[in-house]
Structure formats: C-alpha cells, structure tokens
Amino acid sequence: MYTQALDIPPGEEPKRKPDAVENAAYQAEFDARIDAGATIEAKDWMPEAYRKTLVRQISQHAHSEIVGMLPEGNWISRAPSLKRKAILLAKVQDEGGHGLYLYAAAETLGVSRDSLTEALLSGKAKYSSIFNYPTLNWADVGVIGWLVDGAAIMNQIPLCKCSYGPYDRAMVRVCKEESFHQRQGYDALLAMMSGTEEQRELVQDAVNRWWWPSLMMFGPHDADSPNSGQSMRWGIKRISNDDLRQKFVDATVKQAEVLGVTLPDDELKWNEARGHYDFAAIDWDEFWNVVNGHGQCNVDRLAMRVKAWDDGAWVREAAVAHAEKQAAREKAAA
Amino acid sequence: MERKEWPLWEIFIRSKNGLDHKHCGSVHATDARMALQVARDVYTRRQEGVSIWAVRAEDIVASDPDAKPELFDPAEDKIYRHPTFYKLPDEVDHM
Question: In which band, very low, low, confident or very high, does the pLDDT at A24 lie, cut at 50, 70 and 90?
Fold first, then answer.
C-alpha cells in the first residue's frame, strides 16, 4: 500500500553520517551514476548508508502492505453484496501481493525474508500509521480505497522513478494495481451516497475519521525530515512530503464535492496567490503517538500478525518435510 | 525456534507467446511445484502471463558488475558491426 516517511522516529536512530565513505573511488562513481539518473542494480557497489536506507524503506513499505490487509480483511465476510465481496477479496489479495513484490525487492539487498518478518513481529520495524485506525463500518472500506489508497498513489508514483532498480520495478507493478483500489473505493462510496440518509451519514462519518490520518501518511513536515534531503540526493525520494501532501489535498477537494461530502477542515479554502488549497495544521502529537505504538489498533494489528505466523508454523514445517521426502525419493529412484 | 527458511526462486514470465520470458521478481517455496503455484498467485493476478519459469536463485550464475568494463567495453569501438556504419548511395540505402 504505501511507504511513509518514517525515517526520524525521535531519539531512535543513531545519527549516522550519511556520506560515510568506504571506498572513495567507488563512491565517486556511484555519485556520478546517481547524478546522471542511472539505475543502481542489486549487485552494484553502493554506499552502506544507501543500502540501509533502502532496506528500511522497502521493508517498512512491505510491512505496511501486509498489515494493511487487516483493516479491510475485517469486512470481507460482511461485504454488502457478492460483487463488493469479490472486489474486496481481489483488493486484499493485491495488498498481499504488493507486500511480496516488495519483500522480494528488499531481499536483493542481502537481507533474508525471515529477518524482515522477525523485525515486524517483534515490533522493531515500523509500518504505516494509517493501519492503526479501526474500520468501523462499511463506508470505511470505501474511504480507505478513496483517501488512503489515493494518498498512497500520490506517494508511490514518484517511487516508480527511484534510483534502485528492483524497488523501482516493484513500484511500477504496485502503482498499476493501486489505481483499481482507489476507483473501487470511490465507486462503493458513490453507491452509498445514492442510498438512504443514514448511508450518507455513514460515509461522512468515515471521511471525518480518515481525512486527517490520510494527510499524516505523507510523513512529517519537510523541516522535520532531516533525512529527506539525503534520500532526495540518492534519488530514492523525488518529491518532498509537504509537496506531495499539497498535491493530494488539491486533487481531493473536487472529488469530495462530486461525492457530496465535506472534508472536516474549516480552514480548507482555495488560495489564489499560492494556486493551492490552504488547510489547517496537522496534529503531529497524534501522528507520533500512533507511530510509537499507542494508536487505537497497534496492539491488535501486531497480535493478528503474530498469531497468523505462529498458526502457520506447522504448515511451513510440513512443506519443508514434504519437499525433503520427495527429493530423497527421487534420489533413491535415480 | 529454529527453522529453515524456504528457498528463494527467481520468477520469469512470458507475457504472451512470441515474447521472451522476462524476470519479474522472486518467491519463496519448498519445491518446484509450489514455486510455480506461488508465482502464479503473486505475479499473474491480471493475466500478465501465459507461461512461468521458476529457477532456484542459488542456481543462477551472474557476471560480476565490477567486470563490466572488460566484458562489455571492447564492443564499444566496433561500430562496423552495425548496419548504420555503412553509407550507401541513396538509391539503394533501404536495402
């Protein structure tokens, strides 16, 4: 689903000099390639800090996709029609697929899948704060598609031109599929808005709850993202958090109007001079609270993932045992 | 708990007959059958392919990126290997 600029949990990351150089000649060549807009591939030399940044970002992104299956998976059995259920199943399956594309990309950097899973399950690794909010009614599923996936697309399109080849290629695949996610969400909301007054109220209520968390998905203000500059230099990040957030707000206002809902912000208004919509200040205390584990669903989400992993242990072991037995039989027969 | 990580397989998809198989990513699977099944679910949910190759990642040999100059640069000055090297009279230039 999407990667958030979580590069600066306060007081967590040791300040590493991003320009630490292991090999001056290689470093110069690497810099020249980045400047020329060339793509870095898995086996190419890269600065250790570049590799680490990518592992962190790609794996956080993968974890977000996997945890992102939970809020919506919650509604598969209660989808209002067979059509909506089939759509939701496809969407949740996509999120799982996106997680797997991204884990595969991260593994090209020399980390094992198990170590990444372990980091998620132990709570060491972060995932997008947005999935720590609950899905209370069916309209939430539509709003997640429209706003959350909409914000994700805004964030992810620039990653399709990321300097690291395997990540870039995974993101091209992801972005193609995300468009379906956003459109099916908006479509589900349109259906509810043409229904009863009560249904319209459900949509508005869901929009009210998801709007601000969606804006937080773009990460802290540029001024509070000290590592963003380095990521830009490396061609991992192409557009700043605040610029992406502004683009998202500008694009969404019209969509809300067509849908017939209001966005919960009294200060939201067109600024002719800037050529953008102004909007109110974001509650960053809430953001950091959720990122640091104190959101409404952090505990549940992680517990679900741990349970799924533990419950699947016998399957993983049985599959290995079966493969070993088959291989031994083939060898004996040969 | 000690456990064996499932082996890594590189996945190649032929998008339609007439085209090459193209690398698209990797999956973890315990055997060939599972690798194909998982690759089908992960990489062809929208009819992206008509054929899948799965290769154990450890069985792939690759050239060393540091050997790029000696491997590939010698071809750089052999421009006579390209048809555009030959300037022919206009009347026959489309041969």
Answer: confident
Residue A26 Cα distances to A36, A48, A83, A203, A241, angstroms:
15, 12, 55, 55, 31
- SS3 at position A229: helix
Task: Determine contact: B87 vs chain A, CB below 8 A.
Answer: no
* ipTM exceeding cut-off 0.90 for this assembly: no
Q: Which of A100, A101, A322 sits opposite B30 (nearest CB)?
A: A322
Determine the Cα angle at B14 with ends B11 and B18, to 5°.
155
CA closest to A97 among chain B residues: B42
Of A93, A113, A313, the CB nearest to B45: A93
Cβ contacts (< 8 Å) between B71 and chain A: which residues? none
Determine contact, residues A242/A215, Cβ cutoff 8 Å.
Answer: no
A7 contacts chain B (CB < 8 A): no
Whole-model pTM? 0.90
List, for residues A233-281, the tens digit of each pLDDT value.
899 988 999 999 999 999 999 999 999 999 999 999 999 999 999 999 9
User: Is B85 among the domain residues?
Assistant: no
Neighbours of A264 (CB within 10 A): 14
Q: What angle (nearest 5°) sits at the alpha carbon of residue A26, between those of residues A25 and A29?
A: 90
Interval A201-232: pLDDT, tens = 999 999 999 999 999 999 999 998 877 888 88
- Average confidence (pLDDT) over A140-164: 94
Domain assignment present for B57: yes
Task: Tell me how far the alpha carbon of residue A287 is from its chain's centroid.
Answer: 15
Structural domain of B27: 8-80
Q: Using CA atoms in the order A207, A211, A217, A221, what is the torsion angle rounded to 10 degrees? A: 180
Domain total in chain B = 1
Tens-place pLDDT, residues A40-71: 999 889 999 999 999 999 999 999 999 999 99
Q: Answer yes or no: is B65 within a domain.
A: yes
Q: What is the CATH number of the domain that holds B68?
A: 3.10.20.520
Task: Please report the residues numbered 24 through 53 in chain B whose beta carbons come closer than 8 angstroms to any beta carbon of chain A.
Answer: 24-28, 30-31, 34, 41-43, 45-46
Q: Are A97 and B45 in contact (CB under 8 A)?
A: yes
Q: Closest to B31 (Cβ–Cβ): which among A44, A313, A323?
A: A323
Tell me, yes or no, if B62 comes closer than 8 A to chain A by beta carbon. yes
* B51 occurs within a structural domain: yes
How many other CB atoms sit within 10 Å of the CB of residue A267?
9
